[in-house]
Specification:
8-stranded parallel barrel, globular
Length: about 325
């Protein structure tokens, strides 16, 4: 039984990370209007959010710049057009995917960039490449997290080996990432114990990035908070790939830190997120995402089901079970 104080007390170490542009960008190919991005930045300031993730540092030779909005690539000058010198407490982050970015060239020295945090995203089988990216970013002066994706498919022995390797790098935060939205709070609790063991050994922090396939993203996030996880990802209106993520408005309403204010989040949703939905941008919990979550599958088939406007849920279930 976790200590109730871990859930109800003020925890100064908690950091809230807004991933709306990055994970939400996977829904609309990162085509966000400039006024939306500016309003999101100002909302995060007013809400007391600690980090705002602008998007990816994707390799422009690998991804066609004409097929994506600018937050797929997060050029420093585009970020500066929004945040200026960012003389605020809100820090700026971007994600760099192993094998999908030219980090040595596109990630500049920290002193020359508006970015504070590089979030390295990796699978267990690409940990050596992630280590090189972590060291490169740290040597350039950045804070660094490592987001280990698809953790619901990991063997504990492999995870322990990865955390042992990562613990010896300058990474600041290990991230639990339930990419498939397949995990339950009880599983998150057990997994958190493993992460916290290595975090204590190497003086690191632990974060969580949850997906909402089974409507458990918020539940899994607060489960992790109660077990000592400090870095918490969320998105406004749960916007994110497929079923989306932990809802920012739920998280801000739950946290007891007086610096956080849920009202600006509600205002932003009222003005901007609802407008996106009215314009036809689609995300969020639905039966097809539940099915891939239950089966611990990547949601790509459910995403395609959604794009095709299908409603034959029973037939889709038969198809995904056959693939399992």
């Amino acid at each position: 039984m976790k200590e109730i104080a871990n859930l109800m007390a003020y925890r100064p170490g908690v950091k809230v990370v807004d991933a709306t542009l990055r994970d939400g960008g996977l829904v609309n190919d990162f085509y966000f209007q400039d006024d939306f991005v500016k309003a999101l930045y100002l909302t995060n300031l007013r809400a007391g959010v600690d980090y705002m993730e602008f998007g990816y540092k994707a390799d422009k030779e690998m991804f066609d710049v004409n097929k994506f909005g600018k937050w797929k690539f997060c050029d420093d000058e585009d970020i500066r057009a929004v945040v200026g010198d960012n003389a605020t407490d809100l820090k700026i982050s971007v994600m760099a995917d192993v094998g999908r970015c030219n980090y040595k060239q596109d990630i500049l020295l920290r002193k020359d960039s508006p970015i504070d945090l590089i979030r390295v995203a990796t699978y267990l089988n690409t940990i050596p490449a992630a280590v090189d990216m972590i060291e490169d970013a740290a040597n350039k002066g950045y804070e660094v997290s490592c987001n280990i994706m698809a953790i619901s498919n990991a063997q504990e022995g492999d995870l322990r080996a990865a955390l042992e390797i990562l613990g010896q790098t300058p990474v600041n935060v290990f991230y639990i990432v339930d990419s498939y939205g397949a995990m339950y709070p009880e599983q998150i609790a057990r997994l958190t114990d493993v992460y916290m063991e290595f975090a204590a050994k190497y003086n690191k922090k632990v974060g969580i990035h949850a997906h909402n396939n089974q409507q458990l993203a918020f539940a899994n996030t607060i489960e992790a908070v109660g077990d000592g996880v400090d870095w918490l990802d969320a998105t406004y209106s749960s916007m994110g790939r497929g079923a989306g993520n932990c809802a920012m408005e739920l998280l801000l309403g739950f946290l007891k830190n007086p610096k956080y204010n849920v009202y600006p989040a509600i205002q932003f949703i009222d003005t901007h997120m609802n407008k996106l939905k009215e314009e036809g941008v689609v995300w969020g919990y639905d039966l097809q995402y539940l099915m891939t979550g239950l089966l611990n599958q990547h949601p790509r088939t459910a995403i395609q089901f959604t794009k095709e406007g299908r409603k034959d849920y029973a037939e889709f279930y038969r198809q995904v079970v056959a693939q399992d």
